[in-house]
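Bug: token stream looks shifted between consecutive jobs. Job 1:
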Amino acid sequence: MKRRRLLGTAAASAGVALLPGRVTAAGDGLAARVRPYLDRALAAGAPSTVFGVVRGHRRYVAGASRNGPAPDGRTVFQLGSIGKTLTATALARAVHAGTVRLDTPLSLPPGFAVPRGETRRITLRDLATHSSGLPSLPANLLDGADPYNPYAHYTLEDLATGLPRTPLSHEPGSAYTYSNLGFGLLGQALAFDGVDAMLRRGVTGPLGLSDTTTALRPDMASRKAVGHMDGEAVPDWRDRVLSGAGTSMYSTADDVLRYLNAQLHPERSPLRDAIELTQRHHFTDPATGLRLGLGWHFGVLADGRTVTWHNGGTYGFSTCAAFDRASGTAVMMMVNTYSGGSHAFDALVFALLGELAGS
């Protein structure tokens, strides 16, 4: 892939023949349902994959690999943009604490010129629903970027320089434009220069997500899958400024299932009010009808069921998580390869969720 084309995708995130693969599993009863999806993920180009399911009171994790040990519930992958829902949860916690409102205008410290519309300012709700009008990336992010690690060089000083050069594509609150920049600024608005600590303290810590973090501990590094693009190993993404977008977040299948279980049963969670707020309908794109909560997207399965979901991707990993509260079912997937815009791996998650929720 050419350098400029690769950098331009930094906003990431039918039946096939079964392939042999080594599998590990925990739990029982769901193996026969999940196994074909593991094989399809390998057939679609994943070096390895792990799927997880919450169904009623049961959790199930299974992994498969083309070569070598199969991943399991403790294998570490980069999470990508599913991390945006963690930032949205932090926003919801702040709303319930009374420190901000959803209609609070975006504010950053002096020196950071926040773009604004002709009729009104960008609000925190706009950022959390991708309706701010901000583009996916700040205007200067790709200047001098490593094509395989495009956020690593970017500093707060660069952000201050880039914001005045970053025009809005539409008036805030009027249309959907997916924006890593928007969620990165949401994180900075909630905890300037302390986003990662804020997420640990306010979201991942209370939910018991011990392996969901931007700081790769030594014990996590020994469990981490190697990311790939076009069959070649690539570095993990690093991001010190826009990490509220999930760009440099790590996690495991066990942690994501714990998180999804909290989404299915907020009443059992210490973050009940915040989770419920993120899952409410907050914006509809007038052009497409796409509905959004805070961070979460809403879709419809083939049988008409409403599904709440988010996917994620870096240049070495692809992830997807979706759930249906009505049936008490959730499905997640991680693969250690870049998927580009194909969404082939996402389709497997929606298909499995539809199969399990409808039976």
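Job 2, same session, no restart:
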Amino acid sequence: MVDILNIDLNYQMMITELNGLHNDRGLVLPGVHFSLMINLDTPNLSSTYITSFLTNVLSNLSNIDFDLYCGSQAQKKLVFAIKDIYSISGMLVDQSHCLSVTTIEDSSLSTELYHKIRLLCNKESLLIRKTTIENMIRNHEYEHSLFAQNSSSILGHFTEHFLPDDLYEELFNKYSSIFNNLKPETLKRLHTITAQLLRCSSVKIILYASVFNDFIVSGELDFYGFRIQLTPEQRLRYIKHVDELRQNNEQLDLKVLPNGILSDYQHIPRPTLFHSQDFSYLRFARNTPEYNVCIPNKIILNQIFDEFFTELWNSDTCVSADSLITHSILSIEILQPETSKN
């Protein structure tokens, strides 16, 4: 239970990155269970900083059993409790000072404190709900996000949303077996809906420049939560389709963010956020699709995301996507074998 947004940045990173142990996105530690309660009542911080920080937390800890809670109980406090082992608590004065620090090595006392904190970590205080793309589709949440009002997105990686029909069919035929609990017609129907919406509806999209650069080199695509790799020829068709959508739908507005959200912290993961007035979710590029999606469980978090997107969209940082798309197409053409060019 930590007033984590009110402590020094270095301490924030120590707590949330756990010394980099979980930064390998292929690493899954099912035996590790970690809950964190934070205080979001921080009027002095911008929504951009809060979103960046939470994205960093959720991304770094998405491959363990991690739950995030919010509550005023965490204000001015720093309390860690490890069940049956150890606990430490402190009362904060400011970002870099504690009024007092208490450590408990008695296992019974540590366990008692552990259970008291756990009582605060309940459904009412749960800040995010973890799920999968498959669950979202079964629960109609994926569809809900498509039809939500005032749709906007910030993309840290490319997803299945922008696939042309022919390429979608190819990938579906190759990878449909990974979707054990979904009917093929369900996925095809969702693709048809998505394609139609992108052709005619009003959507605002911010893409990091790194999205294009990574895609050119790796060809990695998030296909309903599963990471697959496209050939250079498939990458070219994908990017050209994005360009075609942009040119044919005047209501599809694309902007590019050349750098990270916070210029001083370029290492913070780029969030992939599908946001709307009604429904939002964060989507991470992981080897483990069961840990890929976080849905805000609190209105306050959706409001923070809304302010964050508006700040970013209206800032001078974002630029036109024209030159980057053109550069991406030329770069991918160079990667193709001479036979494919002919």
